[in-house]
């Protein structure tokens, strides 16, 4: 595996800002940064938070080696004084935010980072790159799972994106509701179910389809899934049942009119006595294609390109903004941008969701100073959306690993079910619920 440090997965200006503020004394000012998105991808009704567990993994490794420090020094990116400051750097601040699998909307305070300006600014690019991509994939996955109507979806997108993005996408897809991945590194790292049997090349390398099917069944057993569209689907299905018998596990179709083909294959399998043989379809599927296949006799789906590219929305347009900082007198005060169309809401945030008749009706974002927020008394029936991930440098490991991913998957399904039914519509529309911002 290629080795790298998360501490260099950043933009250069994070380090030049650190260098300048260390020289002028503002690097030590306590600050609160916030990650949020100003808008959802056009027409989307909700987003799904994913990537926070990977952020915690990255924080554990966020240290600069001697070689990396030499790189910063040799390139004259930072001064000698900053090199000395970085030698023993580790994040000592606190992070809180939305759970993985939680729905988010415009202006939701997805992640809040508190610490010195110096340490918080170093995290900006890393946090955004993880959350923007992982949340885009999880959001697309959730839409696909809704469209699939309880038929399992599997991640087959590894070959359609960067090799490291493929691993992240597998994890995010499972948070969004996918049931397995073809990516073995993701399966190993996160203990995810791995899926896969054979490609068209496997059939083509044999002298005929019969030999290919005999070989696969000998190696993997009768419960395997045979790819039946290399030559002629009808002949392949007949050969598959002849070779494996009615105990054949499944067949996969990867081309053509998938709905019509699945119907013909289902009827043929049943006529041949293979009534329990399942049908999997692949071939550039997205949520719209899955919705169109709802009436077809398909048992599962393999999704690739559109999953790992966020189904047309490969980023969530999240930003990282300073919302509170310590002034020259040592007093924390809310701050905000006033730029046209990019104004931010000052102050640290609380976040809640209110419900009516067991359905979410509003996202409530409450902003203010630490003292005012501590005194804020939220209605008892509001759901608190924030959890603590890091407390003064101590990482809560319960949000990492396989169990955390599966808990996030369950949370995603529950949270989506709590939104109005319009949230699951594939038609373009406004966010499923409005966001109400209150500044104390």
Automatic annotation (TrEMBL):
Molecular function, one GO term: nicotinate phosphoribosyltransferase activity
GO biological process, one term: NAD+ biosynthetic process via the salvage pathway
InterPro entries reported in the protein's UniProt record: Aldolase_TIM, N/Namide_PRibTrfase, NAPRTase_N, Nic_PRibTrfase-Fam, Nic_PRibTrfase_pncB, Nicotinate_pribotase-like_C
Class of this enzyme: ligase
Pathway as given in its UniProt record: Cofactor biosynthesis; NAD(+) biosynthesis; nicotinate D-ribonucleotide from nicotinate: step 1/1
Post-translational modification: Transiently phosphorylated on a His residue during the reaction cycle. Phosphorylation strongly increases the affinity for substrates and increases the rate of nicotinate D-ribonucleotide production. Dephosphorylation regenerates the low-affinity form of the enzyme, leading to product release.
Any GO CC annotation of this UniProt entry: cytosol
Limits of the Nicotinate phosphoribosyltransferase N-terminal domain: 8-132
UniProt entry keywords in alphabetical sequence: Glycosyltransferase, Ligase, Phosphoprotein, Pyridine nucleotide biosynthesis, Transferase
Nicotinate/nicotinamide phosphoribosyltransferase domain sequence ranges: 153-322
Domain of life of the organism encoding this protein: Bacteria
Catalytic activity: 5-phospho-alpha-D-ribose 1-diphosphate + nicotinate + ATP + H2O = nicotinate beta-D-ribonucleotide + ADP + phosphate + diphosphate
Family matches, as CDD domains: NAPRTase_A (cd01570)
Gene3D superfamilies recorded: Aldolase class I, nicotinate phosphoribosyltransferase
EC numbers on record: 6.3.4.21
Family membership: Belongs to the NAPRTase family.
Function: Catalyzes the first step in the biosynthesis of NAD from nicotinic acid, the ATP-dependent synthesis of beta-nicotinate D-ribonucleotide from nicotinate and 5-phospho-D-ribose 1-phosphate.
Protein name listed in UniProt: Nicotinate phosphoribosyltransferase
């Amino acid at each position: 595996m290629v080795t790298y440090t998360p501490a260099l997965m950043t933009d250069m200006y994070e380090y030049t800002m650190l260098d300048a503020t260390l020289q002028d004394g503002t690097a030590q000012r306590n600050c609160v940064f916030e990650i949020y998105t100003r808008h959802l991808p056009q027409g989307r009704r909700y987003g799904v938070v994913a990537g926070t567990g990977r952020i915690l993994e990255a924080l554990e490794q966020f240290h600069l080696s001697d070689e990396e420090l030499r790189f910063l020094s040799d390139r004259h990116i930072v001064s000698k004084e900053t090199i000395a400051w970085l030698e023993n750097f580790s994040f000592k601040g606190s992070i809180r935010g939305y759970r993985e699998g939680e729905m988010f909307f415009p202006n939701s305070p997805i992640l809040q980072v508190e610490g010195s300006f110096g340490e918080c600014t170093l995290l900006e690019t890393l946090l955004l790159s993880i959350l923007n991509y992982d949340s885009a994939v999880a959001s697309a996955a959730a839409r696909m799972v809704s469209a699939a109507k309880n038929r399992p979806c599997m991640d087959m997108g590894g070959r359609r994106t960067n090799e490291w993005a493929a691993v992240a996408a597998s994890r995010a897809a499972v948070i969004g509701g996918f049931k397995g991945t073809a990516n073995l590194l993701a399966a190993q790292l996160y203990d995810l179910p791995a899926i896969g049997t054979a490609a068209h090349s496997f059939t083509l390398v044999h002298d005929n389809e019969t030999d290919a099917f005999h070989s696969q069944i000998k190696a993997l057993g009768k419960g395997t899934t045979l790819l039946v569209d290399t030559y002629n689907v009808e002949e392949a299905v007949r050969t598959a049942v002849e070779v494996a018998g009615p105990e054949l596990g499944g067949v996969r179709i990867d081309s053509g009119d998938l709905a019509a083909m699945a119907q013909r294959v289902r009827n043929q399998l049943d006529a041949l006595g293979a009534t329990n043989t399942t049908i999997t379809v692949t071939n550039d599927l997205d949520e719209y294609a899955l919705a169109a296949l709802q009436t077809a006799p398909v048992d599962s789906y393999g999704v690739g390109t559109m999953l790992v590219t966020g189904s047309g929305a490969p980023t969530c347009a999240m930003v990282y903004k300073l919302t509170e900082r310590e002034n020259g007198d040592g007093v924390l005060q809310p701050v905000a941008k006033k730029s046209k169309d990019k104004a931010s809401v000052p102050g640290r945030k609380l976040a809640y969701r209110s419900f009516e008749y067991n359905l979410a009706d509003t996202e409530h974002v409450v902003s203010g100073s630490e003292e005012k927020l501590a005194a804020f008394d939220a209605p008892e029936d509001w759901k608190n959306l924030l959890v603590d991930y890091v407390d003064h440098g101590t990482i809560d490991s319960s949000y990492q690993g396989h169990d955390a991913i599966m808990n996030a998957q369950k949370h995603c399904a529950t949270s989506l079910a709590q939104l109005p039914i319009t949230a699951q519509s594939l038609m373009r529309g406004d966010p499923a619920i409005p966001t109400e911002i209150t500044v104390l």
